[in-house]
Structures are given as structure tokens and as C-alpha cells.
Amino acid sequence: MATAGSLLLISQALPLALAAATLLGVAYGVYIATHQALVLAHLPDPSHHARDLGVFNGANTAPMVLAPALAWLCVVHLGGYSTLFGVASLLIAASLLPLRVLRR
Predict the structure, then answer these.
(1) Are 7 and 1 in contact (CB under 8 A)?
(2) pLDDT under 50 in the chain at which residues?
(3) 92 with 1: CB under 8 angstroms?
């Protein structure tokens, strides 16, 4: 996803932007499937799965609520869509760091 966001950052032509957007969509689908599988595999107590999945859903929803405000800030006040795609690429890449601490 970070690669697709970076391609959107540098794209000057519509075909490259469409290819990057397609790559971003495919990568997001793979991410969501993997993310859900990891969460379900690491739920601590089977008797609390519903509660834990509720917390998981809240954690998934919070970025979707906050992202439009960040996008507005980037586009209107910090330099436009290039800034937005650059910030998004950095945040996506940074989101990989916590995966290093998962138990194998």
C-alpha cells in the first residue's frame, strides 16, 4: 500500500494514477484479510471473543473517522494532494512496525 501511495504521489498521468489506485485497492484487500486472520488467531479468551471483536472493530473504525480531517489538513493547509499521498505512504509504512512484536 505504501508503494501504491508513493506512485500516486509521483503520478502525472491518468493511466499511472489508475494503476496505482488499483494496486492500492488490491493491497488493502490483502491487508484486511490478513489483519482479521491475525486478530482472530490471537484473541486471548474464547469466552470474550465478542467483546474483543468489538474493540477490534472500534480500532478499525477510528482511523476512518479521523482520516478525513487529516486529509483536509494536508490538502487545504499543507500543500495539496502530493502532501496527502506522502503522509499516507509514511503512515502506512509506519503501521508495519508493530508487526515485529507479534508472537510467532
Answers:
(1) no
(2) none
(3) yes
